[in-house]
Design brief:
The strands form 8 sheets. The chain has a 6-stranded antiparallel barrel. A hairpin with a 2-residue loop joins strand 3 and strand 4. It is built from 1 helix and 27 strands. The protein has one helix spanning about 195-200, and strands spanning about 1-10, 20, 35-45, 50-55, 70-75, 80-90, 90-100, 110, 115-125, 135-140, 150, 155-165, 215, 255, 295-300, 310-315, 360, 370-380, 385-390, 390-400, 405-410, 415-425, 425-435, 440-445, 450-455, 460-465, 465-470. It is mainly beta and about 475 residues long.
Length: about 475
């Protein structure tokens, strides 16, 4: 059952079974008469703070108990004695505002502000989900399209889809962004300036510099013999941004290439679509590169993962039959032993084997917080405290061994913090300033570096009140109380 409690600052053991009353205060607009029957009184210690909770029968509560008001009741073994207590506020609710990812049940928030003490909030439940993508951590060598990934658990399936890389934009074709000056962000580095969410529907468009490559759609009126263009009287100078050309009525505005350094040259939509996998990247022929992994495609995401699985890549090569040796229609043929098994090509052995490729399976819904639990409601809060949960980030290309209690800086977000734990690929940390974002290069106090591949912090808010709802129940007629 759920019971309502009033957190107070005085001894009140002898109020069990009695009616308590908050008298009406004519001089106050908030302190009105309120009454309730006490079902139990609970005393406990949270650190150096002693907390006493009066548990009320919900069916008997009348009115609203107010912070700072005096509440009185008759002592249950001596009707000539009146016990008076003062109502105090405690943590009432804790609500998720962003559910984060890769969390752990029991992750506990640090509470700051509010002037109170003794409150504790933890992650109660997290979601299970499937693997949505596989991040290439190290590209390795000698891999081929179709090499199979083996997951440490669950039913997720994936294969290598591209090796040797795709075709990237030429130098000078990528967008140039307007950036903050170096040193603007705490911790060093610079960052691109983006538009407000309201401007572009939440896409977070970056502001482009005028020297970005553009598709020339303007039709300018030319002078005779094509020696120049007509300009307006308002023309302001020789700089591109100052020129005002007279345009043809069919002219359209120039648009940027919208290409980043990480983009690839791709085919038109639907050029390759077998109903299972849409591949649009233009790639090199096999054996024209080193066999480094570029992309991995998901075949089945699986389900129920509450923590990130690991995965290894099968690079075995088999000795196959020559063309037309077998009449069985298949996309491959292999020499097999009578008792089972196949003959491996020598390239599968240690000397010529695939090497160095590592991947990180990830699912954006894996380990999301679905509920919070107020372990202790605390006492003496004058305003709602701020909740700061441990942060997580998926790291790739980690150099060295990251240890607990190391501090770090970053170059994009400017975040600084302290390592709680690093179990590859997951960094758990407390944030000192800001939080890590994707593409951050993180430098640790021990000299290690890493790049943030994924980051999605859990955030939440709290409310306070004098009369709050707690989780618990009576287990027999003695009125034992169970707290969570």
């Amino acid at each position: 059952m759920y019971t309502n409690g009033i957190t107070i600052c005085s001894r009140s053991y002898f109020l069990t079974g009695q009616t308590i009353t908050q008298a009406n205060d004519p001089s106050s607009t908030t302190v009105n008469k309120a009454t309730a029957i006490v079902e139990n009184v609970l005393k406990f210690q949270e650190g150096s703070t002693q907390i006493i909770e009066i548990i009320l029968n919900t069916d008997t509560v009348s009115g609203t108990f107010v912070n700072g008001a005096e509440v009185t009741g008759i002592k249950n073994d001596d009707e000539d004695i009146t016990i008076g207590v003062t109502v105090s506020q405690s943590l009432s609710t804790a609500v998720i505002t962003n559910d984060g990812s890769t969390l752990t049940v029991g992750d506990e928030a640090t509470l700051t502000g509010g002037a109170g003490a003794g409150a504790r909030v933890q992650v109660l439940d997290i979601s299970g989900a499937g693997v949505s993508e596989v991040i290439v951590n190290a590209a390795g060598t000698n891999y081929q399209e179709g090499d199979t990934l083996t997951f440490s658990s669950g039913t997720a399936q994936a294969k290598v889809s591209i090796v040797n890389g795709g075709f990237a934009p030429e130098s000078g074709s990528v967008d140039s962004h307007i950036e903050l000056e170096t040193g603007t962000i705490t911790g060093g580095g610079s960052g691109d300036i983006e538009m407000e969410d309201a401007h572009d529907g939440g896409l977070g468009s970056k502001i482009l510099s005028e020297d970005s490559a553009m598709i020339d759609n303007e039709i300018k009126l030319e002078l005779e013999n094509e020696v120049g263009h007509l300009v307006s009287e308002e023309d302001g100078g020789d700089q591109t941004s100052e020129r005002f050309y007279i345009l043809n009525q069919e002219s359209e505005i120039d648009i940027p290439y919208n290409m980043e350094a990480t983009d690839h040259i791709v085919q038109e939509n639907e050029t390759q679509d077998d109903g299972l996998y849409i591949g649009d990247k233009i790639v090199q022929q096999n054996a024209s590169g080193t066999g480094d992994i570029t992309d991995v495609r998901m075949i089945a995401s699986g389900s129920g993962y509450t923590t990130l699985p690991t995965a290894t890549i099968d690079g075995d090569r088999h000795i196959g039959l020559e063309n037309a040796t077998s009449s069985i229609t298949s996309d491959f043929s292999r020499i097999e032993f009578e008792t089972g098994g196949t003959v491996l090509n020598e390239s599968s052995f240690a000397v010529l084997n695939v090497t160095g490729g590592t991947v990180i399976p990830f699912g954006e819904d894996i380990g999301r917080a679905t509920s919070l639990n107020i372990i202790e409601h605390g006492i003496d809060f004058t305003s709602a405290p701020t909740l700061a949960f441990p942060h997580y980030a998926v790291l790739k290309t980690v150099s060295g061994t990251i240890s607990a209690d190391e501090t770090f800086t970053s170059n994009v977000s400017g975040a600084t913090g302290t390592v709680i734990d690093f179990t590859a690929p997951l960094l758990k940390y407390t944030a000192t300033t800001s939080e890590l974002v994707e593409t951050d290069t993180v430098t640790f106090s021990g000299g290690e570096t890493a790049i943030v591949a994924k980051a999605d912090p859990l955030t939440g808010t709290a409310t306070i009140g004098a009369q709050v709802t707690t989780s618990g129940k009576y287990v027999n007629q003695d009125g034992h109380f169970r707290r969570f």
